[in-house]
Amino acid sequence: MKKRVGIEALAVAVPSRYVDIEDLARARGVDPAKYTAGLGAREMAVTDPGEDTVALAATAAARLIRQQDVDPSRIGMLVVGTETGIDHSKPVASHVQGLLKLPRTMRTYDTQHACYGGTAGLMAAVEWIASGAGAGKVAVVVCSDIARYGLNTAGEPTQGGGAVALLVSEQPDLLAMDVGLNGVCSMDVYDFWRPVGRREALVDGHYSITCYLEALSGAYRGWREKALAAGLVRWSDALPGEQLARIAYHVPFCKMARKAHTQLRLCDLEDAADAAASTPESREAQAKSAASYDAQVATSLGLNSRIGNVYTASLYLALAGLLQHEAGALAGQRIGLLSYGSGCAAEFYSGTVGEKAAERMAKADLEAVLARRERVSIEEYERLMKLPADAPEAVAPSPGAFRLTEIRDHRRQYAEGN
Length: 418
Prior knowledge:
Low-confidence stretches: none
Shape: globular
Helix content: 25-40%
Number of domains: 1
Number of strands: 17
Distance between the termini: 46 Å
Largest sheet: 10 strands, mixed
Mean pLDDT: 97
CATH architecture: 3-Layer(aba) Sandwich
Radius of gyration: 21 Å
Structural class: alpha+beta
């Protein structure tokens, strides 16, 4: 009998401050609608040098263990997916292991492939457990990143930061994954990159969107082929993609989810048996169905619109936002997930929402996580952005959260709030 493997629970950590996106628009002399309607943004998380990738990852992992009553001795793997790590040798995962005083009898490492890195870690953990190599242990996968483009840049309103910690086990209360049905697509492209020594990424924006959509098409078609063979979906009056209750996408900015959903529907419309009877224009018009987007995608974007881009964690914020609002209604139903990382790699996979998903999400208490944040002025945001990364201010961490306090002889020192 095949093991049921997937995500048992999750926890979210976000920076302690945020700016209102309309405040940012007005400060930049831009019509707020360009950011709210054009990008789908409401708020943007703002980090300071003390809230680095390690601090966010450790806070999310500690929160997961505490909220979900995880026995640390059962953790056999700790993986951190990130593209904003703080060292080229020592992984974020080793910092997290030490800060949380986790057992030595575990595998620890980071996974890097732009925004796809978290999914790479999740799949490694799922397959480790499904193969039996985990021998009954669980895995913790943390997606932790800070999206930074700089003041007065085109990418400024799409910044953000945070972490999502996932508990992966044979008790998939949140999402029982369809192991082995994944569709993947990867290409060597220069759509987005961050050379060694740079804090801000470089991006070819329009090209990156093109790469995202092309990789999505390959990954979705790969999943669909396997799902059709397994009888999970079929060609009928409802397109294969419409037979998924919901679809969560990688969200560099919320409006991208609409573009992604249109592209996925276009894949089905182009490949349907009766495609020759329609025109490219009619298929594109049908692909842009607002009803389909509203039904399958829109409810997943609440957290992303209030936090911003979190690179590896963006897809999992969308999953968290979806389950925060609809876990009970979706219990027993299959959903799809699309992960994309520049450079580039995409993976489409699916799973069934667990019967205990609503109970697990209640423990994550996501509204309280957001409510603890402080709204700051644009002047304070700009001051924080100009601080050097290696000189954190003397700010006491909030209860249960971690902060970088100093870098001494190249060694990073962290403190936990009481």
